[in-house]
Amino acid sequence: MHTPADRHExxxxxxxxxxxxxxxxxxxxxxxxxxxxxxxxxxxAAVGGWWALRPPAGPDPAEILPxxxxxxxxxxAPSPTTASEPARIVVDVVGAVVxxxxxxxPAGSRVTDAIDAAGGFTTGADRIRLNLAQPVAxxxxxxxxxIGEPTGPDLVPVIGGSGGTGVAEGGRESGSxxxxxxxADAASLESLPGIGPxxxxxxxxxxxxxxxxxxxxxxxxxxxxGPAKLEQIRPRATAAGP
Length: 242
Known about the structure:
Number of helices: 7
CATH topology of the largest domain: DNA polymerase, domain 1
Order of helices and strands: HHHEEHEEHHHE
Strand content: 5-15%
Number of domains: 2
Helix content: 25-40%
Oligomer: single chain
Structural class: alpha/beta
């Protein structure tokens, strides 16, 4: 007597036998080896497609190297610099000073500093004939005249000069230390002995009205300049202008 399970098994056996390679080969008219090779080809194609479509694997963390720019490069510490000592200059101070001679001064010093280094003016020094604010150069000479003394050997040269030339700034004084009364402005005229701001302005005004002076003695025509003052001015003035 057959059970239901036996009947089911009897029905499944023909179906399975029809799906075997041999049965398929008989039905399709091909050999069993061809069926097997076809099945393997399908499997290989599926595996190849999966391999081609898989997500790319990331790099091995152990093989990741830092970028060259991310590595800090130590900078050498700046070498300490020693502060340079201030430059010094040497000037020769002569004439009506307490301690005439060669004196050392800081660079950038002026005539007043040179005179202070020489102990200051003597009682008879003619201070008005000097420009105390003028810078002095290394190797220059500062000559301090006495009152009534004629033009001395040389005055203070401009900075960068050497030896003993007179003040040459702006053409106000010539190489001999004289002032051209035809070209000098009021400030330069005040460097003449006995000439203050009012007399300097009077000289400039006279020059504008009457033209250049023919000679230094023509200053006698300027109001306020008498024979005594003219005698003081004459050694320090010239009328060589236009």
